[in-house]
Input
Amino acid sequence: MDEEALLKQFAAQFAHGPDDADDTDAAAAAQGSDSTANQATDDADQSPATFDTQQFLNGLDAIFDRHAAATEAGPYLEQAMVDAENAGDEAGLLTVLNETMGFYRSQGRHKENQWIVQRALELAARMGLTTGTSEAWATTLINCATAMRAAQQYDQAEDLYHQAQSVCRHSLAPTDRRLAALHNNLSMLYSETNRPDKAELELREALRIIEASSVNPDADIDVASSHTNLALTLLPEHKLEGAHWHAAKALEIYRTGHLEHSAHYASALAGFAQVCFAERRYADAVTGYRHALAVIEECYGKDTDYWRITADNLRQAEEEAAKAGVTVDNAGVAGDAGTPPQSGSRLPDSPAQGKTGADATSSPSTVSVSTGSAGAAEAVSACPVSGLKLARAFWTQMGKPMIAAKYPQYAGRIAAGLVGHGSECYGFDDTYSQDHDFGPRFCLWLTDEDYAAIGEQLEADYEALPRKFSVDAQGRVTFEAHARSDASGTFPSAGAGSPVTPRAQGANRRDGVFRIGDFFESITGYRTAPAQTAPHEWLMLQESTLAAATNGEVFADPTGLFSKTRQGFKNMPDDVRLALISKRLGMIAQAGQYNLPRSLKRGDGAAAWLSIHEFVQATASLVFLVNVPMVVGYMPYYKWQFAALRKLSGSMFALLPNVGEQLETVMRLSSAACYGGAGFGEGGKGAAPAIEKINDIVEQIAVDIVKELKREHLTTSGETFLEWQRPYVEDHIASDDPVLKSL
Output
């Protein structure tokens, strides 16, 4: 929907204004309008000649800093609207409207906020912002969309978010926090409209952006808020282990940064309480909700939706605590007694089941799977869940308890996850991928010092973990109960390792215990990423190699050392990225624009076929490079190249999103074009139509690439023969190292 149509839609929907509100709200709005108008008339001679936007923002900050927002922010914002309008300062007025939307949303004043949204959109249109890609327009769209989402006007909110996506794609840097805000708010919309899988993806992307942009992620309120949001999104999916970790991590950040008096701290407390409630830890839930209410009252007052919802949640938690015979002291509202448990708190066994006692047995539709060495291929082929999900469940239910019981002094030093070679590490595995090297598995990554101390024994204990599991109708994985530690703290030795082919054994093994440096060296040849000042080393690394070193998921990394090392391989120097873009432009021109049409004209189908291959490879690589590997990852090896390209093209901020489909069309037509012959095809038209279509697509891709290079300010030329674009791109390479420049 375009901006003009959207504005008309809003104008029509809210044309009746206060008549749609209840009598109290209508009277208050009318009274406020009258008094404002009278005051404006009385003080006409004293209207400010100018509106100081920074002074306005400082005054608003002061109100929140002294926790007077509940009584002072509303009148302050209303007066600021009058002042900005009287001063004729449209930009200042738009700033006030954006701040008002946020405040009204926090106060539950959704009906009034719809008028603010309409006014902001109309003002932006009058200012000419709606036809551009300015940051002011992007911010306004996000705020308007969020206000409409809070008002449960989901269709309008989604339209506005989609417009914001388009604007942000062109106006904001990849690590701009407003992008994270957009992802956060989109996730809330998806959650509220029963699309939890999309909600989780949006939040993980938001968290990635915020952590990448943060000076100190361990004391950053925005990072904490993202952890809380992710925890709450994981709850409906019964991912209690992950929800608990993220909720506790948020509280840890507030404590580390001494941010407990921030208004946002209430959200973290309430989020942790909600997770505790889901875990049936009712005493912790009551304590968390009580503490959250105290913060909400201090910052916002009691007359808000925020207070009422939290109070209702507290009442439910208290009722369940009473039913369970749990008494919670009111002193838990503040002080040490009010601090929820740390992130290391144990979760109940198999929390995803949500059952206890006899009810915890699997349903008749549960699929039981055994990964013993005999007959493993047939058994594993029936597994209905992905390898990454199976790996996380295996870690959560088997690996993590084993380490806590047998290696408690190292539990805070061992990283775990699944990264490296294998279809499941890319998230692209299916039933066809399960005939080899598939089963419950994960990696444990240790420092050299810790590996020397416990590596061999930990490997033996890992190999001894039982691998028999079941999957219920909801896709929840449960491993054998007897795999839990017994009274002596030891584990049964029954069970066998995952069935593997020779190529995944020995030095090439894909799971088990590794030194961090050894693990990355086995994939890339480097224990840590090459230096940013060593472009020749980066250029020797294949993109598929870097993809294998940076894919998968990290389930736990208490010290952060593994993630830091992994991130080093994702952080390709920008000069190297630009040099590779230049090389890809050269190959696209050479293979696709030059040699392909010539080979087809001379009837050399084999040469044309190979030209298409080179063109497709170079173009697909360029798409990943333009989208920045730090953001989207690297292009994987040939088998999953197009699966990754489709996934990238479907993301909301993808650059060159249509190229993947165009390349598949080229490949589909290549047989007819290269080998169709003069009389090939219906009607005897021969290969000509396929050749014409392929040539058209190649040129259209070149046009699209030039447009993107211009948008990125990498070129000022409109030349579509891409070889001539290389000097423009290479002008942006800061290094003088000749290895980065073309001949």
Summary: The CA atoms of residues 104 and 625 lie 42 Å apart. The longest strand covers residues 415-418. Residues 574-601 form the longest helix (28 residues).
